[in-house]
Amino acid sequence: MIKLFKTRKCFLLFIVLFMIPVILFCTISVRAEGSESDSNTAESIIKGKVINVISSNDADKEDKNVMEKQQKLKVEITEGKHDGEKVEITHTIQPSKPDNIEFKTGDELFLSISEDNSGKINEASVYQVVRQNQLLHLLIFFMISIILIGGIRGFKSLITLTITCLIIVKVFLPLILQGYNPIVVSTAVCIAITIISLIIVSGFNRKSAAAILGTSSGVIIAGIIAYVYINSARVSGVGTEDAQLLMDSLLKGTLNFKGILFGSILIGTLGAVMDISMSIASTMNELRENNPRISNGNIIKAGMSVGRDTIGTMTTTLVLAYISGTVFLVLGYMVSKSSFIDIINQDMIASDVIKTFASSIGLIFTIPITVFAYWILDKR
């Protein structure tokens, strides 16, 4: 037993040590591609490093209630044709702005620069903080945790998560940007992710088949309800700042924002629906394998019981996930003393209400559909 434990531990350690270089290689590749893309378009955003904080003091402001500071920084550029050059910039720290960061020596940042006709830098300012290294460390910690604790199942989950992200980034989003119908694309992508994920995790059997049918049906039901209420409530899909930014870009007039909202609802619903359908199918399958003589009625009863037990937590999960995205907006309306009726009639809030209830209804109907699907497959 101890020998077996050591063998598994060594195997998991090998997986971890194998995956870390893969992640690092992929990250370096992405960075290289990003740098090449930037150089082909315009060197307006470049990376630099603070080598000296020349001064740091309160800015002159008429309004003394506004806490604002200014830093004079000496920054060395670390990439591009200006690599090695040093520039001095004045950075204003404003609490109400995203870049309200006080820099210190050694900090990495991105600079926004402009050049004169001769190609020399005539102006530079702080664009953004370099955060990719911290995010990479967090990713590696996540992968190590899921593999060490989850074992082989955790490793399979990691594979499915990677495939899911690749499908969304490399298939779903590019097709949306190319003008394909977001409703068709998001539906196809959700079903594809469901099939691939559940087969990798559980293999091709009646348990995964029932979960696939339940998940696909639940997502489609959520989509139908979302489509009906997006149109009946006249939600535009452009109520958020992110959508407005996309609207103001070169893509203006070429995208179906209602369809994109529909797609986001399906993607958001997929995880919870897949989880509950697999839980139900796994329970029913476990009962059948452990007791082949168990009646169909008892199996159905067990499946429905698991579904009812998890429906509360899953619905709460969906509600909290969508509410968390509107906390700042709702707080803003509350500060301005807007009424409840005014708040819920805002485009963005209405969108999140539709997301929440459409997803929850899809999840609810997933339960009996998964139970029925397993019952049909079990009879064969």
TrEMBL record:
Alphabetical list of InterPro entries matching this protein: YibE_F
Superkingdom as given in the UniProt entry: Bacteria
The entry's keywords: Membrane, Transmembrane, Transmembrane helix
Residue intervals passing through the bilayer: 135-152, 159-177, 183-204, 211-230, 260-281, 318-336, 356-377
PANTHER family per record: MEMBRANE PROTEIN, MEMBRANE PROTEIN-RELATED
Name used for this protein in its record: YibE/F family protein
Organism of derivation: Clostridium aromativorans
Classification lineage: Bacteria, Bacillati, Bacillota, Clostridia, Eubacteriales
